[in-house]
Amino acid sequence: MKKKLTRFDLQEMRDKDEKAVWLTAYDFTTAQLAEEAGMDMLLVGDSLGMAVYGYAGTVPVTMDQCIYHTEAVRRGAANTFIIGDMPFGAYQSGIEDACRNAVRFYKEASVDCIKLEGGTRVAPIIKAISDGGMLVMGHIGLTPQSSSAQGGFRAQGRTADSARAIIEDARAVYEAGAFAVLVEGVPPEVTQAIIREIPIPVYGIGAGDCHGQVMICSDILGLFQAFTPKFVKRYGNMAEEFSKIFKAYIDDVRTGAFPGEEHVYRMIDGEANKL
Ligand code: KIV
After folding, report:
1. Mean pLDDT across the chain
2. Domain definitions of the chain by residue range
């Protein structure tokens, strides 16, 4: 049976320069397949707003939706380190709400850590949740929940001044007690500076080489159609596969090719005559 990683394993992986690989998952089946494939971690990201619910961004996602999907993922991947993503509104209104919602993730969805967006400005929240005995992963750089404040979904840290602010964010989340940090949408030079600045695992999405990568599941599968960010590598075209299968099923039913003899239940011998 696969052994679930702990924060200490993840730290050791960083120290030995072994990459951690993680992916988003929002449902039981995907979680089960990802665990079987040997994924190190699963993130039940608030990206489910776009990938599952069809919202334009992550802002409308609620705490209840996140809990609901995280429970399903936990059922599919009992032996995988699972990250619960705090949605917009779960921690912006203050430390007490933030701690209450982090506790919900632990009690209702059996997460191994929670993740929240922001650097220096959320450091007191990270500290309070960590002081409560829970694990927190920071998320800095491009932070989709504040995309309107950041001027849209765009790369961050492309000037020396803005890069310096992101490095300060990394230090603030580390000092507040985060055990790891996710860096999104920044140039590799900024990621490398963060790695030199703090001793905890630094993971990336659109941030170049670091201690591990996360991708959105529907992006690598080639399922999400609305847009594909520059940093995504598609490993297949599942949208095309879905479409082929759906069309074949429609044709089969319309032409009478399905259901076939092998798909029906037969009555017990003699019973059809009696009927
Ligand atoms: O919600 C999410 O899926 C994320 C990604 C940026 C990894 O936070």
Report:
1. 96
2. 7-236, 242-274
pTM of the model: 0.95
Ligand 1 pocket test, candidate residues 21, 39, 46, 73, most atoms within 8 A of CB:
46
Protein residues with CB under 6 Å of any ligand 1 atom: 24, 43, 45-47, 85, 184, 205, 214, 216
CB 112 within 8 A of CB 77: no
Dist. CA 226 → ligand 1 center (Å)? 16
Distance of CA 32 from the midpoint of ligand 1 (Å): 19
The model's pLDDT over 41-65, given as tens digits with 9 standing for 90+, comes to 999 999 999 999 999 999 999 999 9
CATH class of the structural domain 7-236: alpha beta
The closest of 123, 192, 51 to 183, measured between CA atoms, is: 192
Tokens linked to 105: 């993730």
Distances (CA, A) of 207 to 81, 83, 212, 232: 22, 19, 10, 11
Q: What is the pLDDT of residues 1-17, one digit of tens each?
A: 789 999 999 999 999 99
Closest among 197, 182, 180 to 143, alpha carbons compared: 182
